[in-house]
Amino acid sequence: MTTGSSVMPMAEMWINMGPQHPFTHGLWTLKVKVDGETIVDAEPVIGYLHRGFEKLCENRTYPQIVPICDRLCYVASMSWDHVYVSAVENMLGIAVPARAEYIRVVALEIQRIASHLVWLASFMTDLGNLTAFLYAMREREMFIDMLQALCGARLTYNYPRIGGVSQDIPKNFAHQCLKQLDLFEKRLREYEYLIEESEVFRIRTQGVGYLRPSDAINLGVTGPPLRAAGVPVDLRTHDPYSAYADFDFNVCVEKESDVFARYRVRINEMREGCSLIRQALKKMPAGPVIGKVPRHIPKADGWARTEDPRGEAFFYVQGDGTDRPYRVKIRSPIFVTVSAAPVMLRGYKLADVPSIMGSLDMCLGESDR
Q1: pLDDT, tens digit (0-9, with 9 covering 90-100), for 111-128
Q2: Does pLDDT of 253 surpass 70?
Q3: Distances, alpha carbon 135 to alpha carbons 120, 142, 194, 224, in Å
Q4: Do 246 and 106 contact (CB within 8 A), yes or no?
Q5: N- to C-terminal Cα distance for the chain?
Q6: Beta strands 38-45 and 6-7, pairing class
Q7: Where are the domains of the chain?
């Protein structure tokens, strides 16, 4: 609409992206305020998937809670099982056998790689690279096979136990695992060539979704997005748990703090995961795989925090002396990280939203718990 020779300015407007938009990778909504094609504000909205996890725990015995921890994030089930049993072990003062801790490290790093591969496959689909999606899902099957060899399941594992793990590793597990790791590392180099040589990929990721290190720290962002901002915080080294203090590995850090840097951090973490698995299999001590659990549960509380594939996961368990917890509380890394969406999106274009938000590795099960 024109008046004489003047043009009426376009008004700012809010756009709902979700809960059915393909970029969301789950049931949530991102409200984006735009001025033309430029984002001026954003507001993430959850609440479409709430399942009352913390309340469910109050009506189950301590061992019965492990299977529903699998459902917090079924892409990283082993990680959530582990942080829960670690919190209960802290509450009960249980000493976990060394062999069990080494097995846990193997399982956790296999799960981390499998989780990052799902992220990579989904992210590449968002950016139009179907070949990389097929490659990543192909390699994920190898790691799911390893987890199946450990516990018989491929998605929700119920493998960690309070005091250890449900069973020892199979006799030929180490040999088969090392063969798969050798193959995966070769294919990881193919990923880098296929993805990073694409000019389209670099245009859509480099210099996009910048998050200043100070903003990341102040907003409580953890995991790959924090390390991609040049902040070398990884709980496996800064507050070692399980058997991680026994191994040598690098904290994967990038300095650019953009979408490309978050991609690079996860690629490097998969390599470091292979190294950790090799070290754990080589150094694994003999002995039992589950410790002695007390018959009587004290009136006490316990907590644990771990480096989940998406950031810092935290579990708080309060016991009242019965066989069921009085209160359970979790900290989801994505619940916190997604709150930084407005800071990362402002000033970029509407077409950048799938790239920026895809770099966070959303998981709604743990966020909308």
Answers
A1: 999 999 999 999 999 999
A2: yes
A3: 10, 12, 10, 22
A4: no
A5: 48
A6: unpaired
A7: 2-367
The Cβ of residue 283 has, within 10 Å, a number of other Cβ atoms equal to 13
> Two tokens at 102?
């080494």
Given a contact cutoff of 8 angstroms between Cβ atoms, the answer to whether 161 and 66 are in contact is yes
Enumerate residues 6+ apart whose C-beta is below 8 A from 3: none
For residue 222, give both structure tokens: 């953890």
Q: What is the mean pLDDT of residues 290-315?
A: 95
Question: Residue 293 has what DSSP assignment?
Answer: -
Query: Three-class SS of residue 267?
Result: helix
Packing angle, helices 98-126 and 77-92, rounded to 10: 150
CB 160 within 8 A of CB 79: no
Asked if omega into 285 is within 30° of 0 (cis), the reply is no
Picking from 258, 268, 365, 307, the residue whose alpha carbon sits closest to that of residue 83 is 307
Q: Which two tokens stand for residue 64?
A: 């019965």
Mark out the alpha helices in the chain (DSSP H runs).
53-57, 62-69, 77-92, 98-126, 130-151, 173-196, 199-205, 213-218, 224-227, 235-238, 259-283, 333-337, 341-345, 353-358, 364-367
Whole-angstrom distance, CA of residue 329 vs CA of residue 314: 8
- The domain 2-367 having CATH identifier 1.10.645.10: the answer here is yes
Residue-by-residue DSSP string for 80-137: HHHHHHHHHHHHHTPPPPHHHHHHHHHHHHHHHHHHHHHHHHHHHHHTT-HHHHHHHH
Q: Across-strand partners of 33?
A: 14, 41
Backbone angles phi, psi at 362, to 5 degrees: -65, 140
The amino acid sitting at 265 is V
**Percent of the chain predicted with pLDDT > 90:** 91
**Residue that the structure tokens 């390390």 belong to:** 227
Q: Decide if pLDDT at 2 tops 50.
A: no
Burial of residue 337 (CB within 10 Å: 0-12, 13-18, 19+) is buried
